[in-house]
């Protein structure tokens, strides 16, 4: 780094700093996003632009991400960032250099007038992100090895998208990734989740439990009926189960065919994209109240929204390049 005089531990790099590995030097030129323990920067090695994710030295779990990206490269994963380099600035931070992608889905969704995507974009994003999750699972389970649940563990994840098992402090597996994925899918389709404005984690947990009971209709309002089927499939999975991804794809494909959605149409955020807002054959029409709520969201975000904005850092889609 260009400056190492500060005595504090866990000091993060700043714009203009140079971070070095055994192979290369990288200059930090901008900030892409920030989270609780680290920051994702835009950087350059003077030949290409890269993403540099740095985490506090004493709290970093980047070694897990490095292992995942190395394993993903072995199976030629198409939806996981390429590992370029990694290094350490003791005792301040650990960093990993990876391919620079486009804007994350959170930012792209917030740029939409009503903070939601068309059904066409939502379903195709759902298919791509499900493929990414399946690839990630393959990197850790490619030899058929299974791991037993460890019992009670600490909280992990983002409150808004965490699975019910996460709220119960239970060990998380593949089915929990899929549950979080479905929450994301509902959010980008309808614009918000019922617990959007709830700040307390226990209240969010109650909202997710209600989505399976009396609040189920509200949870899936303005969503295709197949989303309900997907929740049933995910909730039926146990920790050690091998998810039947093909059943999830089948439901997404059913939505696509019923609504005449073409896989190669432009996404909502792409330049000159033709509006696909009329693709709502399997959805309920939005009420005046929900339209008003969408407009309110543009003018005011809650503290919970701002926290989630900071936590949503590297959920990238290759289509955003």
TrEMBL record:
ATP binds at residue 53. The keyword ATP-binding applies. Coiled coil: none annotated. The keyword ATP-binding applies. Pfam families: Pkinase. Residues 276-321 are annotated as: Disordered. Residues 276-291 have a biased composition (Polar residues). It comes from the Eukaryota. Residues 293-321 have a biased composition (Basic and acidic residues). GO terms for molecular function: ATP binding; protein kinase activity. Keywords: ATP-binding, Nucleotide-binding. Residues 26-321 form the Protein kinase domain. This is Protein kinase domain-containing protein.
